[in-house]
Amino acid sequence: MSAQDTLRAKATELLELVGPVALADQAGAITDGTPPSIVAERLGRPDAAPVIAAVAEAARSCGPDRAEAYLEGLADGHALRPQDIETVWTGPAVHGVPVRSTQLALLNLVGGSTRELWLSTYSAKPHAPLLEAIERAMQRGVSVAIAIEILAGAGSAISGSEPAAAFALLKGAKLYTWPVASRPSDAKLHAKLALADATTLLVTSANFTTSGLERNLEAGLLVKGGSAPKRAAEHLKALVRSGHLTRI
Q1: DSSP per-residue codes, 30-94
Q2: Residue ranges of the alpha helices (H) in 63-157?
Q3: From the CA atom positions of the chain, what is the Rg in Å?
Q4: Which tens digit of pLDDT belongs to each residue from 201-238?
Q5: Residue in 143, 96, 131, 95 with CA at minimum distance from that of residue 213
């Protein structure tokens, strides 16, 4: 493989690891001889050091200026890939203003998953449409992981059954929480999102309850494509690897 081919291959691998913004920001450092371990530390990805080293070595053969320009162009091109973002709402409808419902967006996201599904919520109650959609996804072979708050972490803010009980019937789903002993004082697991196949991301103010999905006034964003869903998937998996999210 030529140095140019190596640069292309390893630069693409690095792009997938750190994303276009970080790659563009550190393109000069990668190609000017800065130690790969230092660049990796700046990026917050120590595991990327071997790939950075391979890119830097190829850059020396291709010419640092040319390699830097290539990295910046690769990052810019990736950042411009098609991405669709729309708002989603729960609550009162307003005549003449079409909006997408939180529940419909969530159910479509779950229904469209083919490989991997992540959910995260603070509070949860059994909500039949969501549970049925998740069950169908699991029957298709989709891996399902759910991060959720626990009563010990919520304090007096949540009462009754453990929020995880809402998903008790989903045999095979992996339930995670943020261990209370590992948190800062009074910190909560408050992230509310759904993520399918690292390509479609719903971030919402709504808890996964009937009130949150059908009655409250809630707002969120549905992101299809681009780097945000992939970065979210990487972050969730890193939280599991690092022990910040542990199985219930």
Answers
A1: HHTT--HHHHHHHHT-GGGHHHHHHHHHHHHHH-HHHHHHHHHHHHHHHHTS-EEEEEEEES---
A2: 64-79, 102-112, 128-139, 151-154
A3: 21
A4: 999 999 999 999 999 999 999 999 888 898 899 999 99
A5: 131
